[in-house]
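fold-stage: in
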Amino acid sequence: MARGRGSAGRAVAVAFAVVCCCCCILAGRGVADAAATYYVGDGDGWSFSSPSWPNGKHFHAGDVLGKYIPWVHNVVAVDEDGYNSCTTPPGSRTFASGNDRVRLAKGDNFFICTRFGHCNLGMKLVVNAA
């Protein structure tokens, strides 16, 4: 039986190309799905200028916020009412170590500092995660 010229080689090349494309797609998904870590306020840290810090950034559910000066500030995850009234509703989670890793949920994430009346002075933050 005669075989067509190069048919086996062509089939192997096509199969190899398909496998390479699948690997690239899967590798790209892994990179895109990896959570990013952000330091609130960047070099300035969690401070009174932090409310504008999220502007222009694109956050995703699963991204992590971290690092602040624990003896001066804390981070309390609150609901929208707690954010607006600078109060800590029951069930709110308080982070106080300075090295906490606060994972973002999809939608608006509300945070306040409850130390020394800081929230009432404007130290609060809303981060929207897609």
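fold-stage: in (second)
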Amino acid sequence: MKLLLLLGLVAVALCETTRFEGDKVFRLKPAIDSHVSFIKELASSLKVDFWSPDNAELVTIDIDVDIHVPASHTDMVFVMLDQSGISYDVLIDDLQAAVDGQMDSSMHARSHAYTKYNNWSTIEDWVISITSANPTLITRSTLGKTFEGRSMHLLKIGKGSGSTKPAIFIDCGIHAREWISHAFCQWFVKEAVSTYGSDPVMTSLLDEMDIFVLPVFNVDGYVYSWTKDRMWRKTRSKKSGSSCVGADPNRNFDAGWCTLGASSNPCSDTYCGASVESEIEVKNVANFIRQNRSIIKAYLTIHSYSQLLLFPYSYKYGLAADHSELLRVAEAASQALRSLYGTVYTTGPGATTIYPASGGSDDWAYDLGVKYSYTFELRDTGRYGFLLPESQIKPTCEETMLAVKYIASYVQKNLY
């Protein structure tokens, strides 16, 4: 009887959704070396979830450091912060309230909507329905299965021509908790099919090129972020010899793998994986891009948050061979984005603009020969972080469309 009761309690614990009552998100502002050391010591002694940068090793002077601290540690952290002399703000006073506030209470429809966050089953149904509703513009395929056996649906958008066309590859949701990313890919597909024939830019683009859209890269992680832990980032793969689950898919590509800005610790949020492409989701995407490398002319990967438009390199400080052109295109694209709502983006190579990070998909694609390789970090700059309210989905996607269309049109006119 006691054993059954114990097993029952374990089962309940495993099924419970993580709650964040009283958890806080702090923004720390290190100004001197001792502040940097303090943050690294804080991370080593307490369970701290780094929102920006991705881990403690990337902390340097004069960058904002956003950390999520559990309620059980907040009093202690306040004392430690005051003793250290570091400047700080509380960005989110109660994380659970922010999680709850992310959803627009006026929209509880179970069906798919472009201005709300949709769970995986809703997105999967949408993938099938939008394909069947647009047979002359969309074809659907599957890149393969995830670690937990879910399908990685890929949409090819373009007017059929009977011949192979140059292409652009866009993916969303490499990191599970970045929900605005997933929302953008759905918005992009909707805009592409609904404006084809009326918008000359989109019409020309889809007549002359194909656009591959992977609406959800890290499907297992996304499901987990809905059902168990809203702050989950990694995949859900399991490693022998470790109780910690998952790897960071954007540290798992063959681009300076597991060097700068990545961790070999399986429990880290920036764990690079057991080996290059150890994560099946990464391998599936990499295989597809390799197989189609002759036609894929641009690679766009959508993340959040920070309002950045980045390009190679992140795994090293050296400039890309095409640096001047990549910067020029990024600056023009960010200006197009800014024209709608005044949202300001910072542009530049990843390593020098924010921080070094190895194993990223954009660097890998660029080194493979995909010249126009960009990473978007969407809204915002920290007020809500990963918990951007649904009320901001529409403006975020509208402005991002302008930047993506600019890049796509540029690529269309500058094929190589």
